[in-house]
Amino acid sequence: MTITAHISVLATPYIEALCTDEDGRYIDATFGRGGHTRLLLNQLSDKAEVLGLDRDPQAIEAGQTLMQEDQRFTIVYTDFAGIQQAVEAQGWSSVSGIGFDLGVSSPQLDQAERGFSFMQEGPLDMRMDFESGQPLSKKLESVSEKGLVKVIREYGGEKFAGRIARSILEALKEGKLNTTRDLENVCFHATPKKMRHGHTHPATRTFQALRIWVNDEMNQIDSAVETSMKLLKAGGRLAIISFHSGEDRRIRDLIEKQVHGCTCPREFPMCVCGFKPTMKWVQKKPVRATDEEVAQNPRSRSAMLRIAEKLDEPC
Questions:
Q1: What gap in Å lies between CA 199 and CA 222, rounded to an integer?
Q2: Are residues 172 and 137 located together in one domain of the fold?
Q3: What is the reported pTM?
Q4: CATH label of the domain that carries residue 244
Q5: Lowest mean pLDDT segment, chosen from 95-104, 127-136, 141-150, 211-220
Q6: Containing structural domain, residue 76
Q7: What are the beta bridge partners of residue 302?
Q8: In whole angstroms, what is the distance from residue 31 CA to residue 76 CA?
Q9: Dihedrals φ, ψ of 155, to 5°?
Q10: Which CATH number fits the domain that encloses residue 205?
């Protein structure tokens, strides 16, 4: 098996947005293989500190290696929704920046035993952490057709979600759904013939949706982003890279709530909630990869970077 080197997406705008204080404390909430973290450390002084979080055991191994190389860095084994506990364990009260790079890394996709890729034969697992949660095979045994349609449509943006969900459950019932290639084959043939050979493989969105479902990623995002905005010090930055529109909308809406303040119904003549904005957009429109980056790293084609900053005080 060949492991593809992971290339950090949107590296330059991500680091430039995040690094506002060279002596500050930072969190890489999705450490992965440490690409963004290493770039961040290169921009920081000897006084700075960086905390990495991940729930993938192999990412933890990579983080432990980096800890030995650089005393400014610490890795913690947790999902990114555990960010509050990780910060408290460090004895920190606030941070200068928090970054997220959502999705899966190239090495994870290359490891067939993880079950993330439809390009290789592997188990129906898809867990980021083998020690927690249920593998995809178990979750499919208890989900209804209606529930699976909702997962594939909402988390994958798949317009043929109904056909695909029905075919998945039929194959499961018939004992024909045992590996990732079986699942790929079901997705392919559940897609209308004229749509099977386009730019995107017919299984792409479904695999993405199922991975998000297995790892409870949307609820993780809600918890982690809300906590992150509270942990930032005045002028601190939140930088989040997502890879599909559902994630991006979720992130945008969570930040928008803190940007606009008042939550009173529009028909109210005056504000009675008293809520004040705590964040501002650094650039509301997401940053996208340049043509040059996409040519070098096709994975960056769908990447979207949103950047927001903590206000000095509520407006």
A1: 31
A2: yes
A3: 0.86
A4: 3.40.50.150
A5: 127-136
A6: 11-106+217-310
A7: none
A8: 9
A9: -95, -15
A10: 1.10.150.170
Nearest to 84 by CA among 254, 240, 231: 231
Of 214, 232, 254, which marks where a domain is finished? 214
Output the six-digit token pair for 254: 């969570």
Kind and range of the H or E run holding 57: helix 57-69
Is residue 183 within 8 A of residue 119, CB to CB? The reply is no
Q: How far is CA 254 from CA 22, 152, 205, 263, 298, in A?
A: 28, 22, 23, 13, 28
Tally the domains of the chain: 2
Distance, CA of 256 to CA of 276 (rounded, Å): 12
Residues 278 and 292 occupy one common structural domain: yes
In a domain, 134, yes or no: yes
In this structure, how many other beta carbons lie within 10 angstroms of the beta carbon of residue 284?
13
Q: Of the given ranges (94-108, 123-137, 192-206, 215-229), which has the lowest mean pLDDT? A: 94-108
Instruction: Please determine, for residue 306, whether its predicted confidence score (pLDDT) is greater than 50.
Output: yes
pLDDT for res 112: 59
